[in-house]
Design brief:
InterPro entries: Uncharacterised_Ycf51. Keywords: Membrane, Transmembrane, Transmembrane helix. With about 180 residues, the chain is α+β, with helices and mostly antiparallel strands. The protein folds into two domains: about 55 residues; about 90 residues, no CATH class. It is about 40% helix and about 25% strand. The chain has a five-stranded mixed β-sheet. The two termini are about 40 Å apart.
Amino acid sequence: MLTTADFLQYTQWSGIATLVFAFLAILAFVFKWGIRFRLVGTTGFMIVLTGGLFALSLVPLSRTVIPGAVKYTLVYDNGATEAVITTSKTITPTELEATLRQAASNLYSPGRLGSKGNNFLTVRARTILHPEPGLSVPLYLGEVKRSLTSRDDSTMAVEVYTDQFAKLPTQPTAS
């Protein structure tokens, strides 16, 4: 995975390329070359690219890894206080708790907006059951609430709906 130091090095190279294109664009206008407006566009693009790389060199791109967490997929996120993830039907309550903690940590962003009186991000975990052909039923297995204001939220409230695990299909035992 790329680090912030890598992005800083890419920013330096992109900045040098931007200056080269800017110099070429100035030369193109002085000597009235036919590609002068294309060079202006290329220089503008390089400025935007350099700015993006610089921003990536400032912000760490890391994901939290919680031992025991399993793979999940984000299926809904309103960008503010609610998100839903989906997990496999074979998840255990212990794995679900770790997965909810990991999802809550990975979905934290200082740019999320809290609604009036609600400064918590709620992440719900679900799986999809198919009781009969053509019918899909979501089964919510648990949720976690975390603070929207603090990255290191030590007071995350994880709730696992143990009664819902009884509705999951049982796995055949291998003999």
